[in-house]
Structures are given as structure tokens and as C-alpha cells.
Amino acid sequence: MLKKIIDNLKTLIIALLIAVIIRSLLFQPFYIPSSSMEPTLLVGDRIFVSKYTYGYSKHSFPFSPPIFKNRIFYSKPNYGDLIVFKTPTDNRTDFIKRLIGLPGDTVQFVNGNLIINKKKNEKIPILITGTIMCAGQDIEVNAFQEQLPNMKKHNVVYNKVGSMKNSDIYVVPDKHYFFLGDNRDCSSDSRFLTNVGYVHENNLVGKARIIFFSNDTKKGSIFKFWNWGDTMRFSRFFQILK
Q1: Cys bridge to 205: 24, 69, 84, 119, which one at CB 3.0-4.6 A?
Q2: What DSSP element (H or E) covers 92?
Q3: Is residue 186 within 8 Å of 158, Cβ to Cβ?
């Protein structure tokens, strides 16, 4: 009996170690709780994030143990990457935003246009399907396809009313990055220096790769399987993120 218990404990410990290794070094699942990245990511999306893309820091591991001072095997991110990072204010909370500014860049909003290094980013008006949320409410937005300095394109939305038209000039410090939400007027991001601000390279957790599951939380709980026809967003399952 005792031998059987010990064998079961060994199996459990090995399984836990394998899970920790996969989660820390390869892929980690995340849940999207807010609308700050709509229309790219919706509340209820569940994504896989690759932990190896930018190398590893202490934040690559559960509870952020102080085993590294800096990143190892570091590979620099690029404009437009969807990145999970630890917020600089507490080094604990996970945020996901889009990378807009690299070290040394200047970022500014002028008359509603995103300016990077004194050059206006091209944005083309587009139509989007579905509603856009902000703080649990449907909002009216103007949608655009935006092109970043590396020619990468993605979709963003701006509120039709109450939109941020102008801002100060942000100068991204060395070894730091500047992030924005795709739902531009419903996102706490690097524009708010006391809440998020510039993000140090050591705070990068990983790159968002795929939506593996999505449930519309407004329409019902995932546990009410009899409503899955209404609540599950099957078209978003296994959607590759760009």
C-alpha cells in the first residue's frame, strides 16, 4: 500500500515538473479579461503565449523568482508584436498590448494620428463586424487598418466621441518599450506613465501566438454546455494572431 502511494506521488511530482517546464520555457495559456485589445482580442478569448520568443527573465517563471538579473537568450521584439508583460508598477500583473515604440523612439498623438519618430503612421478606414466594448458597454467607434514603421499592419479602433486627439511626446528610454491597446480609447497602456508607462525588457513575458478557445461571457457561462451554440465563438478557435 505504502509503495503504491509513493509511486503515485512520484508520478504526480513528475507531471507537475513537466507542466512547470512547459509553462516556463515553451507555452503558457492566458485569459483575456478586458476589451482593451478589441477587435484583435475579445473578452473570453484564451490564448497561448510563446515564452521562448524573447528569451527568459525571472518573469518567465511562476512567482518571478530572482534567478536572473537580466534576460538570457534575448531576442528583441519588433513593431506590432502582441506581447504579454508584467506591469512596471507592481511587476506582478500580466498585461497584453501591442508594441508601438522601440528604445529611443518618440511617440505622440497629433490630431488623432499616431506619430512615431516624427512620421505619421498610415491608417486606412475599414469596416468591422460585431460590436466594440469598453467597460462592459457597447461603444461607437471609427476603425482603421494601421501600418507601423516595419510595414506591419493591424486593425485599431477609436471612439467616435471622447477620443484622445493629442498627447505629449513620449521618448522611449533605453532597454524599454512603449505599448498601446488596439482599442485605443479603452486601454490602460504606456500613455499613462503612473499606471503602466515604459516597460523594461526584463518585464516581457512572451509573444501571443494563437487563440485556442473563445467564449462570449456576456451570453453565458462556459459551464452551461446546453448554451454552447450561443456562447462559444467557434470561428475564433485556433486563430493565429498577427
Answers
A1: 84
A2: none
A3: no
Grid-cell match 502582441, residue found: 82
Alpha-carbon span 16 to 36, nearest angstrom: 33
- Here the cell at position 84 is 504579454
Span 63-80, pLDDT tens digits: 888 888 899 999 999 999
Q: What is the CA radius of gyration of the chain?
A: 20
Mean pLDDT of the 162-186 span = 95
CATH of the domain at 191: 2.10.109.10
d(CA 76, CA 150): 14
Helix H or strand E segment including 111: none
User: Is the preceding peptide bond at 66 cis, omega within 30 degrees of 0?
Assistant: no
- Cell numbers placing 203: 518585464
The tens digit of pLDDT for each residue in 13-39 reads 877 777 777 777 789 999 999 999 999
Rounded-to-integer distance, Cα 44 and Cα 36, Å = 12
Q: Number of folded domains in the chain?
A: 1
Domain range for 232? 2-240
Considering only CA atoms, which of 1, 34, 200 is closest in space to residue 133? Answer: 34
pTM: 0.90
Report the side by side order of strands in the sheet with 106-110.
Answer: 119-120, 113-116, 106-110, 170-171
Catalytic positions: 36, 97
What single-letter amino acid sits at 146?
Answer: E
